[in-house]
Design brief:
Blueprint: H1 6-12, H2 16-26, H3 37-47, E1 54-58, H4 66-72, E2 77-82, H5 85-95, E3 101-105, E4 115-121, H6 129-136, E5 140-153, H7 160-165, E6 173-174, H8 175-184, E7 187-194, H9 197-214, H10 220-239, E8 243-252
Helix pairs in contact: 1-2, 2-10, 3-4, 9-10
C-alpha cells in the first residue's frame, strides 16, 4: 500500500537494503502521506475542539501535522507518537523546546491517557478502522472525537492501473464501507470529506523533487523504491477521480 509507512513495512520484511532505500527517499520529507492544514482546521470545526484540547497525533511520521494541531488549540497539548525511530527523531528535533508537544516512540495500538481529539492521518489501516476505533475508545475524554483519513475508492469500477497500485491493501473499500466499519465500532460519523488535490500535492511534490535528485547513481534497491514512488504519483494524477483519502470525524455513540 502506498503512502505513510506501508513501503517501509514491506522493506523491513525483506532485507536491510530496501529499508535503507526507503529512508534515503523519505529522509527530511515534510509528510508521509497526503494532508494539509485545512484538513485539521475543518476537523476541529466539526468536532468543536476547545482551545485547551489534549490531542494525540497517532502515527505522526516526521510530525507534519503537529503545527496545525497547535493552531486549532493554542493552549492545548499534543502527544505525537510513532513506532518508527527515524520519524520520532525527526519530530523531536523539530519540536524540541516546545512544552506543548511530547513525541513518543510508541505503538499506535496502545494509546495511553485521554484526549479530546485523536488525529490519525493515513495510518489507521495498520489496525483496521473498526479495530482502531474500538481500541482507542478508552483514550477519549467524555466529549472526545477521532478524526482519521483512510484511502478509499470513489468508483465501483476502478481502472486496472489503480487496482494494481492498491493491490497490497485488499481491505480497501468505499465511503459507505468506511462508515459501516465506523458504526461497527459503536461510533457515529459527524462529517466526512475527501482530501483535496492540494493535500495530495503537499505530499507528492516534495517526493517527486527528491526522486529526481536521487535518480543519478542510485543502486538497484533505491531505483526500485524510486520507481514505486514515481508510479504512485503518476497513477494518482491520471486516476485521481477513482481513489483518494476520506477524512472522517467520528465519536462514540
Amino acid at each position: 500500500m502506498p503512502c505513510k509507512h506501508a513501503k517501509l513495512s514491506k522493506a523491513i520484511s525483506m532485507t536491510s537494503d530496501p529499508t535503507q532505500a526507503f529512508f534515503t527517499l523519505h529522509r527530511d520529507l515534510p509528510r508521509e502521506g497526503p494532508g494539509e492544514p485545512a484538513d485539521i482546521h475543518w476537523a476541529a470545526s466539526v468536532a468543536g475542539t476547545p482551545q485547551t484540547a489534549q490531542m494525540a497525533d497517532v502515527g505522526c511520521g516526521p510530525g507534519g501535522d503537529i503545527g496545525s494541531l497547535l493552531e486549532i488549540a493554542p493552549r492545548g497539548q499534543v502527544t505525537a507518537l510513532d513506532k518508527i525511530a527515524h520519524f520520532v527523531t525527526a519530530a523531536r528535533e523539530t519540536w524540541q523546546g516546545d512544552g506543548r508537544v511530547t513525541v513518543l516512540k510508541a505503538d499506535m495500538a496502545v494509546i495511553r491517557n485521554q484526549y479530546d481529539l485523536i488525529w490519525c492521518a493515513g495510518a489507521v489501516y495498520f489496525l483496521g478502522v473498526t479495530e482502531a476505533l474500538t481500541g482507542w475508545r478508552k483514550s477519549l475524554t467524555r466529549n472526545g472525537v477521532i478524526a482519521f483519513s483512510e484511502i478509499c475508492w470513489f468508483t465501483d469500477r476502478p481502472s486496472p492501473r489503480a487496482r494494481k497500485l492498491w493491490s497490497g491493501y485488499p481491505a480497501m473499500t468505499d465511503a459507505a464501507g468506511i462508515q459501516q466499519r465506523v458504526e461497527a465500532a459503536g461510533y457515529e460519523v459527524l462529517d466526512t470529506r475527501p482530501l483535496s488535490d492540494a493535500a495530495w500535492e503537499a505530499y507528492l511534490t516534495p517526493l517527486e523533487i527528491r526522486i529526481a535528485a536521487l535518480r543519478k547513481g542510485a543502486d538497484s534497491a533505491l531505483q526500485k523504491v524510486l520507481d514505486e514512488a514515481a508510479e504512485e504519483a503518476a497513477c494518482w494524477r491520471e486516476h485521481r477521480q477513482e481513489f483518494g483519502y476520506l477524512l472522517s470525524v467520528v465519536r462514540p455513540k
